[in-house]
Design brief:
flat; 4 helices; 140 residues; single chain; 2 domains
Length: 140
């Protein structure tokens, strides 16, 4: 259930960004008009963005929890996606996660290697630039 929840949250975040992007595009394109609801002015672009969020959110819900819709094509894809999430969750349960000490040592080793590699590449770059400068390939 954990993998499905994370997948649903990630997809809903993408849906939220898509809805926000639609709202911005419509607002930037032209004045779309607005209407009043409970004394507040609501632009039509916000309605379109909210509609997109609701529709795509419903698809995320369907794909995450595998509910039957009665549409054969949609139900087959939904069940395949739910099976993928269940398989992913079972594979994650088999992973041997490192302890705090091992994680700290590994992170330290990676950071040291990044610094050493960065210094090495900087030195090689300076040598190559100096040699190319002597050969007048690069300006001095």
């Amino acid at each position: 259930m954990y993998a499905r929840g994370v997948a649903a949250a990630a997809m809903l975040l993408l849906v939220l960004f898509a809805s926000l992007r639609l709202y911005i595009l419509i607002q930037a394109g032209a004045e779309t008009g607005s209407f009043k609801v409970i004394g507040m002015t609501v632009p039509y672009s916000a309605v379109w963005a909210a509609g997109l969020f609701v529709v795509l959110g419903a698809f995320v819900f369907l794909f995450t929890f595998g509910l039957a819709t009665g549409l054969k094509v949609l139900d087959e894809n939904t069940h395949r996606f739910v099976d993928l999430l269940v398989d992913t969750e079972s594979e994650l349960a088999k992973v041997a996660w490192p302890g705090r000490d091992e994680l700290g040592r590994s992170t330290g080793a990676v950071l040291v290697l990044i610094l050493v590699l960065g210094a090495f590449l900087y030195i090689v770059d300076q040598i190559v630039a100096y040699v190319f400068g002597l050969l007048r390939v690069l300006p001095q």
